[in-house]
Amino acid sequence: MSATVDKTSGRRQESLPAAPIASKRRRRLGRQEGAAHVFMTPWLLGFVFVTAVPLFASLYLAFTDYNILYSPEFTGLENFRRMVDDYRFWDAVGVTIRYVVVSVPLQLAFALLLAVVLDRGISGLPFYRGGYYLPSLLGSSIAVSVLWREVFGHSGLINQVLGLFGIEGQSWLQNPTTALGTLIVLNVWTFGSPMVIFLAGLRQIPADLYEAAKVDGAGTWRQFLNITLPMLTPIIFFNLVLQTIGAFQTFNQAYIISGGTGGPLNSTLFYTLYIYQQGFVSFNMGYASALAWVLMLAIAIVTAIHFLLSKYWVHYGDD
Amino acid sequence: MARSIAAPAEGSIRQRWQNRPDNLIKHAILLLFLLVMVYPLLWMVASAFKPGHLVLTEPGLIPSEVTLDNFRKGWNALGRPFSWFFLNSFLITIGSIIGNLVSCSLAAYALARLDFRMRRLYFAVTLASVMLPFHVLVIPQYIFFSKLDLVNTYFPLLVPKFLATDAFFIFLMVQFIRTIPRDLDRAAMLDGASPYRIFWDIILPLMRPALVTTTIFTFIWTWNDFFVPLLYITKTHLYTVPLALNSLVDSESQQGVGLLFAMSLLSLLPILVVFTVAQRYLIRGIATTGLK
Amino acid sequence: MGGAIGSAEPGGNTTMGKTDRRGFLKLTAAGAIGAASLTFGGRAATAQDQVTIRYGWWGGTERQQSYTAALEEFEAANPGIKIEKEFADYDAFQERMTTQMAAGDVPEIFWIASPQVLTYEKAGLYRQLDDIPTLDLSDFTEEILETIRINGTLNTMPNGVFVPVIRYNETFAQEDGVEIPTEDSGNWTWESFQQLLIDYTNDNANGRVGSTYNPTHDLTFEAYLRQRGEQLWTEDGQIGFTVDSLAEWFNWWETLREAGATLSVSEQEGVSPDWQLAGDKVLVNFNNSNHIIDDAKAFPDYTFKMRAMPVSEGAVEGHKYLYYPRMAIYQKIAEDKVEAAGSVVNYIINDASFVRTTGLTMGAPINPRVRQEAVEFASDDEKEMLRIVEADAAAQRNPRYEAPAGSNNWRTVMVRTAEEITLGGADIREASQRMIDEVAAEIERAR
After folding, report:
1. Which of A24, A105, B268, C410 is the most exposed place for a label (fewest CB within 10 A)?
2. How far is CA A211 from CA A9, A122, A222, C7, in A?
3. Nearest CA-CA distance, residue C94 and chain B, Å
């Protein structure tokens, strides 16, 4: 029961006792529906004009032969048939999958570890946080290719250190077995981004939960397991999903470090690099669109799996 | 149940865990790791001060010759002081930040909190849009903007930000909002608050870490974005910093690496400043709101 | 209880207090206005009596600066024409060009990447050049024009002239007591050159090697093919070389590499050498004639000289050739801009003051008269280059055809083949056959 003041007459009015729940709820839902449309308007506009139109255009192109200079020519499933026989396509798939499976967990592990350690309180926290984040700033800049050669190249830092032990190293970038590894290291090197997100998530865990736990006699490790980790799961999930999607879509680093070739011997031929080569270098825009949609499908499936599995380990505060 | 969410001030962070003194070992390990991480950057700093032809031929951190040439030449390399490009980048970046903050928070709130028929569909579509490989959308998008005669303006760079096209941040905010207990919303709704009020008075303040994170990342990504400005901006006076940097190095002859490093360093400074300043807001965290 | 949501609890305060929220609103408003003004910024109003011509080119900082200066000189002398300078580095330029082509938005005058010459021609991107009154072609003999024409039409104009060269480090040669034979010494064949490099590597005391590893350099490969009576591309747009020649070419290089007379792939960071890394380790380098100018700057302590390619016995007549990096005028150029564009191109190719300002980084000027004039202000390195180009220009030359549509990828395929051979241990002949098959397939697909 609540009292409201009638604005026109200034009289206090008792509102009617508990109107049927259904209509109140309907009214609330109705208001939510209306509000939702208002809130989603910018997004809707953006989606329709900036995303949807190019999206459907590229879907159409996937079934055509389009070389940019002439109009697209419908060819049905030809592009997809071509993919099956294309050895570079399979190379690209292999490279990308290997990259995703290794670099994402590795990167997130570092990010989480450092975030937790830093969040515990240490003098000079901003210094460390900024320092660990620095590499992310350079992650996809043009300077990275030179820097990476400085570290992994024939006369780079790693080989210099190895030289101290009498081991003569070859260029890690020119070796088809290790070239992808250098890119994985690059991804892990830029763990600063997910780390910052973890830190923000850690920041949002209410301190009184820890207080209560301490009162109950829980030690540091128990606190971590029973409070930090569960409360952090939405953020872990977010980072996991988005880093995975991002890893599938890695382009800049591969392009910069391999000089756009995906070499040596296709060992750094990331899928998006292959799409780029087909579309922008060979002008096979139709084939490139088909490749892109296959990638999208793959990412969608992986993401769907993430979402399905999330029921089992992600704990939201709004349940 | 009214839960009060205490605001940890900087000092009280220590109370969150058992009180542990900083041990030297911990610092040593952290520092060592930091040095390893940061080595390539240190090398870049050192190289920026080396004369052009020594940059690649002389490995190691200590330059044999120190010069400010790279900075001097690089500053005016494109016919106007580099600060011009900083300004351009700033404008675009600040605009993008505002755009993302406003449009993405609106969409995130609706997707996370409001109940409406199209919610699942919109959510799936938003998710799908993150999965799109960029290079495939590029050509239709370019044709679209070029037919509207918007090439060589900042329109194609800015307007999408105001239309929540950076779905990454919508997701980030959705996940953060979902960590906020619904009790607060429900209490407010019982008081007759509209979704707008709830958004403005409850959710937005509690989302602060997400908003700060969005700001930081939008800044960095927009600042470093190369390909989109490359396509739409061909007039030098409209160049952003990455475009200007790119034209310092010739991919055919690999000249200009020293200039590239010098100017890259300079272009890192604003990002560092923003990050350092924004960090403080991350520290402050969530402050008290109370329910009676 | 009403209206108490989010208000202060005694002793606490809201994060986003009233001032914060007003600030947020102000931000939004500012942002909207800012965005609106920005979006329409950058649209310079062109004066009614001025014609604006967009000029697109690539390179590094130096080339950007020097060409900008030269174009501004033109503008100063021609106030009715304004030049929009659209510069990017090579890769970025090609990416942007692709998008601009798709949108029909190509600059009025643009440089053409060598693998794309015929592709663009087939797509109708070039405007005819011999009917523009402001473009004076009187300095060009019919012979020269014939070499410039593509399929009988004059629709592109060379920016310069390159020839393939052997560039050697004279400082090293003197220090190590080696002499590089001249072209007419009779001792300048592929076989003798190979031996020279191997001997050099074994004998010199400074740990230097004979050459970079560079089988993927297109111009020198072409020279090699032409000497054997083959060519890169035929007149009707097919591959002009056999698997034998390709395999022998790779073999020549593998012999050197395995003898240690070239840098390893690891040392030079790739099957295509990085000059900055390699320059102080090698005696010779295979390259384009114009590169000496930029490359010498990377190593100011050394002097460099050039030789034309080795010639084996039995080389066919007329194997020499000139390579033209080209530019063109966009087919869809507005009619009222044609004359202005023509006068820009005219200035570039006919007026020696243009190359005086830009330097000869794009090789020797195509106009013979300007070439002569350039000798007066050329630097020593540039004079070296001009000497070699003149010699090759004077020689008898069989016709040369540009890369056909669909083959624009051929250099990357060659790089991959070189990788297969050096890193993957592939059999040279098989790898060569695969390369030819792949390039041929792409050409076929483009028909």
Report:
1. A24
2. 50, 19, 13, 26
3. 11
Neighbouring chains of A at 3+ CB pairs under 8 Å are B, C
CA atoms of C341 and A201, how far apart (whole Å):
59
The chain-wide mean pLDDT, for chain C, equals 85
Domain count, chain B: 1
Q: Which residues in A lie closer than 8 A to residue C265 (C-beta atoms)?
A: 171, 174, 264
CATH 3.40.190.10 holds for C51-161+324-393: yes
Q: Is C269 within 8 Å of A266 when comparing Cβ atoms?
A: no
Confidence band for C44, pLDDT divided at 50, 70 and 90: very low
Question: Does the distance separating the beta carbons of A131 and B37 come in below 8 Å?
Answer: yes
Instruction: Quote the pLDDT of residue B90.
Output: 92
Q: Which chain B residue is nearest to residue A33, measuring alpha carbons?
A: B116
Identify the band that residue C127 occupies on the pLDDT scale cut at 50, 70 and 90.
very high
Helices (H), ranges, B49-118: 69-75, 83-113
- Residue B279 reports pLDDT greater than 60: yes
Task: Name the segment(s) of chain C with CATH classification 3.40.190.10.
Answer: 51-161+324-393, 164-319+406-445
pLDDT at A12 over 80: no
Q: Most confidently modeled of A50-59, A105-114, B252-261, C54-63? A: A105-114
Q: For residue B208, what are the domain limits? A: 73-284
Residue to substitute from B136, B218, B249, B273, interface A, most A β-carbons within 10 A: B136
Residue C269, C-beta contacts closer than 8 angstroms, at least 6 positions apart = A149, A153, A154, A171, A173, A174, C277
- Is B44 a residue whose pLDDT tops 80? yes
Burial group, residue C220, by CB count within 10 angstroms (0-12, 13-18, 19+): buried
Q: Indicate the residue of A39, A160, A288 with minimum beta-carbon distance to B109.
A: A39
The CA distance from C381 to A1, in Å, is: 95
Query: What pLDDT, on a 0 to 100 scale, did the predictor assign at position C16?
Result: 40
Q: Which of residues 79-98 of C touch A (CB under 8 A)?
A: 91, 94-95, 98
Calpha distance C104→C234 (Å, rounded) = 30
Tell me which residue of A119, A132, C24, A138 sits closest to B215, measured CA to CA: C24
A51, A130, A138 member nearest B129 (Cβ): A51
Out of B261, B275, B285, closest to residue A133 by CB: B275
Contact assignment for B283 to A53 by CB distance below 8 Å: no
**What is the reported pLDDT for B242?**
84
Is B198's pLDDT higher than 60? yes
CATH number for B256? 1.10.3720.10
The CATH H-level (homologous superfamily) assignment of domain A80-313 is: MetI-like (1.10.3720.10)
Q: Closest Cα partner for C411 from C382, C442, C384, C386?
A: C442
Residue C105 sits at the vertex; the CA angle it makes with C102 and C109, to the nearest 5 degrees, is: 120
Across the A:B interface, residue pairs with CB atoms under 8 Å apart total 301
Q: Is B223 left (phi over 0), alpha (psi -120 to 50) or beta?
A: alpha
- B32 part of a folded domain: no
Note the residue count of chain B: 292
Count CB atoms within 10 A of the CB of residue A18.
Answer: 8
Tokens representing residue B67 in the block: 């010069």
Q: Chain B contacts of A275, Cβ < 8 Å?
A: 133, 135-136
Average pLDDT estimate for C239-264: 94
Contact A238 B172 (CB under 8 A): yes
Mean pLDDT of chain A: 84
Nearest CB to A154: which of C91, C267, C409?
A: C267
Question: Which class would CATH give C164-319+406-445?
Answer: alpha beta
- pLDDT at position C104 is 84
- Tell me how many degrees the CA angle A264-A269-A274 measures, rounded to the nearest 5: 135
pLDDT digits (tens, 9 = 90+) for C310-351: 998 888 988 999 999 999 999 999 999 999 999 999 999 999
